[in-house]
Amino acid sequence: MSSQPSRYTDPGATDWRLHDIVAALRQSRETTHNVRHKGRIREMPSRDALAGIVKGLQAALFPTHYGRPDLSDESIDYFVGDTLNSTLIVLAEQVRRGLLFVSDADASGDADLSAQAIQITRHFAASLPAIRALLVSDLQAAYQGDPAATSVSEILLCYPGMTAIIHYRLAHKLYELGAPVLARLISDLAHEATGIDIHPGAAIGPAFFIDHGTGVVIGETTVIGEGVRLYQAVTLGAKRFPTDESGQLLKGHARHPIVEDDVVIYAGATVLGRITIGKGSTIGGNVWLTHSVPPGSNVSQALNRND
Amino acid sequence: MSSQPSRYTDPGATDWRLHDIVAALRQSRETTHNVRHKGRIREMPSRDALAGIVKGLQAALFPTHYGRPDLSDESIDYFVGDTLNSTLIVLAEQVRRGLLFVSDADASGDADLSAQAIQITRHFAASLPAIRALLVSDLQAAYQGDPAATSVSEILLCYPGMTAIIHYRLAHKLYELGAPVLARLISDLAHEATGIDIHPGAAIGPAFFIDHGTGVVIGETTVIGEGVRLYQAVTLGAKRFPTDESGQLLKGHARHPIVEDDVVIYAGATVLGRITIGKGSTIGGNVWLTHSVPPGSNVSQALNRND
Amino acid sequence: MSSQPSRYTDPGATDWRLHDIVAALRQSRETTHNVRHKGRIREMPSRDALAGIVKGLQAALFPTHYGRPDLSDESIDYFVGDTLNSTLIVLAEQVRRGLLFVSDADASGDADLSAQAIQITRHFAASLPAIRALLVSDLQAAYQGDPAATSVSEILLCYPGMTAIIHYRLAHKLYELGAPVLARLISDLAHEATGIDIHPGAAIGPAFFIDHGTGVVIGETTVIGEGVRLYQAVTLGAKRFPTDESGQLLKGHARHPIVEDDVVIYAGATVLGRITIGKGSTIGGNVWLTHSVPPGSNVSQALNRND
Amino acid sequence: MSSQPSRYTDPGATDWRLHDIVAALRQSRETTHNVRHKGRIREMPSRDALAGIVKGLQAALFPTHYGRPDLSDESIDYFVGDTLNSTLIVLAEQVRRGLLFVSDADASGDADLSAQAIQITRHFAASLPAIRALLVSDLQAAYQGDPAATSVSEILLCYPGMTAIIHYRLAHKLYELGAPVLARLISDLAHEATGIDIHPGAAIGPAFFIDHGTGVVIGETTVIGEGVRLYQAVTLGAKRFPTDESGQLLKGHARHPIVEDDVVIYAGATVLGRITIGKGSTIGGNVWLTHSVPPGSNVSQALNRND
Amino acid sequence: MSSQPSRYTDPGATDWRLHDIVAALRQSRETTHNVRHKGRIREMPSRDALAGIVKGLQAALFPTHYGRPDLSDESIDYFVGDTLNSTLIVLAEQVRRGLLFVSDADASGDADLSAQAIQITRHFAASLPAIRALLVSDLQAAYQGDPAATSVSEILLCYPGMTAIIHYRLAHKLYELGAPVLARLISDLAHEATGIDIHPGAAIGPAFFIDHGTGVVIGETTVIGEGVRLYQAVTLGAKRFPTDESGQLLKGHARHPIVEDDVVIYAGATVLGRITIGKGSTIGGNVWLTHSVPPGSNVSQALNRND
Amino acid sequence: MSSQPSRYTDPGATDWRLHDIVAALRQSRETTHNVRHKGRIREMPSRDALAGIVKGLQAALFPTHYGRPDLSDESIDYFVGDTLNSTLIVLAEQVRRGLLFVSDADASGDADLSAQAIQITRHFAASLPAIRALLVSDLQAAYQGDPAATSVSEILLCYPGMTAIIHYRLAHKLYELGAPVLARLISDLAHEATGIDIHPGAAIGPAFFIDHGTGVVIGETTVIGEGVRLYQAVTLGAKRFPTDESGQLLKGHARHPIVEDDVVIYAGATVLGRITIGKGSTIGGNVWLTHSVPPGSNVSQALNRND
Fold it and tell me: Are residues D147 and E289, on separate chains, in Cβ contact within 8 Å?
């Protein structure tokens, strides 16, 4: 390279010792956990495919907001039907891949898995009108809960809380139907877009509203009633993680809060453990709460001030 | 095909009962809030279009950082002029759509709306040099405020706080010019990218710096002076939401803090209500503050320690 | 056209006074900091290119998760080798651009910079197997640390903490090799996707796990041991920023915490300054901590309750 | 550039004297024909938009061949309806632009033009089933006329003659409805893809088949009966172009051949002028024919051979 | 639309009577040939997929010309292997679809078809080095045959004849292996790009060169020896199409010319029927030839001139 | 794969014996002509880049037809300038690559080649106004020569002859400036789009018109005067290719026709050798002409007819 300057055109200029690195990476793969499962390739669900699926479902549920703005009375059902069909076909394939992670997939042939995936997809499709009804209740709660909101359309277009709840309600249904990995992926898509992290296993009633939302965490076994409102950075988390005798974490047991109807939790509050926040309570910002409070409680943080 | 099922090739394999679902979704749409406004389609502003508009404006304002890195003295103005023109044409159409939400659009014909949209866009365009000057003051504040910053270019390329402020200053101008829905959309684009949620209605002085920024919330009626610095997860929010006699939220009245010049607010502080933080004050991390403090105050959190 | 107004078809309908705005923006550029460095164009590194580079590296490190799901034993090394090669070529060019910011680039010719960039890229490439080994330790820590995790694949696909750590480990190596601006850009890409902000200068040991993660901030001079676990909104920050006699910030001196092995820090804790958190300590949620604590400490927040 | 080698990074390295060239091009535009029509911008129809429109129409007409291959009984109509709707909306806008070229557009307002464009589009849409019926007759003619054809699907997927006829039948309808510029654009899209140049003004009966097709030219006033078959490089052209007294070409008068039912014309034949080729005639390859021939004629070329 | 002009925003403005058209198109589909084959969907091979496959194969065969120009000694095999693998996976799926058209697909299950498709793909892959050797002979023939050719690279990059021959040699192998529909699609892709129409069934020896090429047609049963050269618009076609007793075309029988070694055929010549052009003959431009000629013949057209 | 049907999921299902094929292809590359030139990689010019360059130049020359249709008086120069600049930067890099094929590139360093490429690009840019003037003369010739043409815009949008001439005039200038490979690539792009093959070395006067055009071939040393008109499938070719004593083709000597002013050549005529067609002559369709004809000649084909 010395006397004849050039950019990447000398032979060997871009020799990276690829053979050595490729070999070392292969060795690294082989000595660690391998996705190869009993000798067969387990195709991963695709994050990009899931993102497209959520986009398609949103368009089918709210066609003029998330689909195309110029739909007319005569064209809207064609749009909804066609969007649903193409979305569900992609979803069925992702569900099939997801099943490789949960079912005893080795015992059943691929054909069984496909049939099972289509069955799940069909049930999911059938639940979409009910999901839409829940989302409408959430929309109305947002409109009533935020003085800055000027229309329902604005909430659909601009509110990250709404984005997170749409993702959650779709993911939760897939979780219920036996597709937890897909559910989790959808949930993380919402997390990436909004900073709101709702585990798809959580059970959340209608008319749910999250304002601003960045940093909200809602754990796997959380139960939330109707008309609950959360602000940014609220954690509904686990306090401790019980282990079995061998010290392994116990997975799946109830360890997150129960939040009853009409509770409001302000920014930054941290609520931990299987405690109950009674109906109609208000939890102040930045509060750290690890025990149950009765209905109608008002919890707030101490303040020191040295001015 | 008989006994060995296969992948999606049987007739009916991908029958989702589309007719039923499409009909149920139609019914759901018809019984809830409808975007059809007095019999006419209200085209929604497009989130993707807004994202492209912001990208175009950023490129026009800082061409070598956000446009293309190889612009020369003779080519840069062509790039700026062409980028501006194509961006403003798209913006004018989005402004027109946004006006359907705010003006008494039914009374005025489409032609009036278009003319009004172009007028707003023209005023917006004319304000870009002033916006750039503000952004340069913000850049300098960032460079002086962060010991990790090594150059102004690094701040433009890598600092989420800068991204949020650029979006805010553009959105705020549109808000002032009567395009609040577009402003809100731009604001949510910044929120999605940075985790910083600044309502476009807030009034923020020059030399503003947000470090890290995730979880920052700045409410609609907040007023911020010159040279203010915020860290991640700071909330400048409302304490309570007054309602009218019928229990409806009062919209738009002053309910967020006034932060005077040269105030620093550390990570996680929550400042609520129409209070004033006096010039030069420092608010410590995780503080919960709901009353005014005089200039030069120093507020910090209590700490318990049981080790 | 006279009486019936129309949409953008009148001559002048879309006149924005481009000449004035373009001239004002040029003036604004000329009176402020200019990327033109001693008369030469300093090409900026490209955020999009960096995003593609990280994607390529992830695919090379975990081919079936981030590359393509259908790789077989015979095809996987071809995929890894080809992906690496095309990624490293792009990386070398970005490193070259980055060097314009750090080295005394004006003294050396372009050819020298190119050679230096290729050298750095080669060292970076050689370190990939070691980076992969660290990431495997992180994966195992996540699997053991989260009761909701059902498989290693789920963590790779859905955990923002894992995304952030992958970005960090790649960025940190570039930082060490003398490409700090690229490192910072990668770091901000992770921040955008996850809400987790790890400065590439931080030194982090193996088996690191961040759960949920939104709002986590880890400063430039932080030192983290082995087996540390963080939750969302934890700040490992600087307490104050020392200045030199002239009032300029001192850049690069040690000002962030040292977190020893096996420490757990819960959601929202703020740990500031060059303090040491002793091995095995637990820091409670929302705590504000500015002094060192010995090994095995247990720090938690006070709580007021007025119900 | 002398001693320090570099690639495009010196200031001025990429100075192209843009100002001079831009000015010269402006002057060139101003001294020649200008699209500005009586002071208004005449938006050109878009070739790319037309290509998309043809693609959409083909998908609506033959959904499993040109749309998506996995449509089921329940989904196919949704696909057709949605594809049609989105295609027709784009078409209406292109028709509107096309009208600026043909109608006395200056007299009518934009609103009139839009209404007229929608009217044309509606008529066009209504004719699609009839167009499909013609195309089915063409398909059957191709299947029967080519011993190499193994299925109707193969003809739809692989035969350039079929591609050209589909474009022609769509273009011809637009031509009839008063959108000749769009028709011409569609015609040229077929020409580009197939080398077959059919003027949309030609009148062509059912069961038309062109084999191979490259170089076929069919002029504006050609009339073709039912069951006609052409091979590659056949010209049905004009012999001479009559002019008016001032020497200007007379536009639009009948100057191309009439080809009656069941005629076959082999490769390379050139048939010129308003002559009639009688029903059932066969014209041999490479023939040059400028006078009418009665029904059942057999015309072939002379051959010299010097071996 | 009445008094207030607007663009597509009135309800019904874009009513196309979709229901009627969709219903009429459905009826049209049902009364004509249907791709539904004995009740099952026959997925069509995809033209776009085939285009990608050819691109991938070209890149694997000539990596620096059709792949990426900056491959080094250490990276080239990774590129070739990875490109081949991803291309062959897509090809196998297209072969499977193609088999639905040729085999007695109804009798065999999908699994059999998939296995058969993979087998064909494997054989095809194994033949690529031999195909490359033939293409190198064609390249050398082009270089020697065209005085305007300045390098082998120029021929690979710019010669439509070369493009057509590459497509042909790939298509011919698929044709031999039992994938005639795919072969035909590839052949038509070449036709679209070059105007050269070579049926994949033709048998063509090494060192074949077509100059310019537009309008060349080579029929299904043509046999071409070694070192043959064709110019534009040459037809090697069938003279007549024999039918069986019922008047149906006999498919697949030998009806195109045999062209022996070292023959040159000039522009526009039409050679029809199962005749033989003897070794070393020269056929002049625009000749119409329907009988065999012995080796070393020289055939040219008569000329009239009336000046 | 035996009893459990599946699609590509068994290990080895997609084993293609990649190692063998990759090795065989490597061997094939090594035994044949290699692009590696004296040990250095010769980066190929990119066909896709050239396509983009032509698109950019067309947009700069005819902004409202090939650029964007909504340009206004104030925006058009910005568009032209910006489009030119970004196009010329890409062109300069392609010219540099092209120089590796023509110059004694090994003797000169990369920096020299870059400087030379920029010099060529600058000259090319400076010639664009003159090229535009020629194209305007061609446009006027088309409008006057075709009775079917209704406007100049229609010719720019729909006439393949115009497309071919634009490509030719750009390519010819690059050819003159010493970039023959690029010129050839541009020429082949036109060939692909239009079926018209004009060698960039040909010299063509103003007011040139090709109607329909498919199959037109114009050889490297052709000379065409002013106001010439060609129809489809006209060949202006070489009659024979002289060789040197060793049998090698002599490259570059004058071997194609001279066509004087105002000549018209009808469809399918083949004109071969260094002959002269005198001013104002008319050559009939399908004529085979190999000797010069004086000014004002009228040449046509003989016709046999057996009806």
Answer: no
